[in-house]
Design a protein that fits this description.
alpha+beta, Alpha-Beta Plaits, 4-stranded antiparallel beta sheet, 2 helices
Length: 79
């Protein structure tokens, strides 16, 4: 029996270009808990990063990963 994968939306400040999107996508998909990442870039604003999870993950771990990539996690929306 498979369970539905949970999706969360991260609100991220500081991304301005496609390189930023690639950097965040690479760092998040390196986490075992993350299955897929889709970024809606809002250059100069707050971008939406839709993350599909394989397993539960803490907001703190997500914030640390975003911070290490050089950006700021300003919100987490869990469905």
């Amino acid at each position: 029996m498979t369970r539905d994968r949970q999706s969360i939306t991260l609100k991220v400040d500081g991304m301005t270009c496609g390189h930023c999107v690639m950097h965040v996508t690479k760092d998040l998909t390196a986490l075992d808990e993350v299955a897929e990442v889709k970024v809606t870039l809002e250059a100069g604003g707050t971008s939406d990063v839709l993350v599909t999870l394989n397993d539960d993950i803490t907001d703190e771990k997500l914030a640390e990963t975003i911070d290490e990539a050089g950006y700021a996690l300003v919100g987490v929306e869990r469905a």
